Amino acid sequence: MSELPADRISRTRAALIWAALVIAILVPITAAGLSPLLAWRQPVYIIAGFAGVIAMALLLLQPLLAGGRLPGLTATRGRRWHRWVGGLLVAAVVIHVGALWITSPPDVVDALLLRSPTPFSVWGVTAMWAVFAAALLATLRHRLRLRPRIWRRAHTSLAMVTVIGSVVHALLIEGTMETVSKWALCALVLAATVKALVDLKVWAVRRR
After folding, report:
1. Residue 112 is part of which domain span?
2. Coil, strand, or helix at residue 115?
């Protein structure tokens, strides 16, 4: 038997990676759409829930883009997509919180003031402020004139808080997300984040 050409193997591998990523994102969203908990719910509540699910899906993309793990994307395009997806992530969080505010303002106020009796609220609010801070730091990167290493460490630290807070927030909630797909998505988000941290070596100490 003749061996397959290297370029064909590369194309096949790239197609499999993108297919797996699409499945990892679409399965939790589809499962949430089929949730019986959506029956008789107000449209605003449904929007809030789906915005949260989409935000978790976007969190899977971010470390893959930052670490250059998606085939077919150059480093420059990957960073550009990382910024765009970051903007979509902020928008999804704003829609998630805003829709919940419309549904129940007192609950959102309690969560923002960290006096909510539900533990998942604290984790969610922590992740929200972290993603806002990470986005703001990225926007003001040139104005702040921080050293690249300092900026990367600060941005990465905020991203880690966002990921951990979001994962714990999602796992503690018994909502529209289906249990198995939710755990799988959270595990993939954590794995992708750890892989990106290892590859980028953000905290590596440079020797003079």
Report:
1. 10-200
2. coil
What total of structural domains would you count in the chain?
1
Could you tell me the CA-to-CA distances from 204 to 16, 64, 79, 150, 197 in Å, in that order?
A: 32, 20, 21, 12, 10
| Domain CATH code at residue 52 | 1.20.120
Tell me, yes or no, whether 1 lies in a domain.
no
Q: What is the pTM of this model?
A: 0.89
pLDDT digits (tens, 9 = 90+) for 89-133: 999 999 999 999 999 898 899 899 888 888 889 999 999 999 999
Model pLDDT for residues 20-66, shown as the tens digit of each residue: 999 999 999 999 988 888 877 888 989 999 999 999 999 999 999 98
The CA distance from 182 to 6, in Å, is: 36
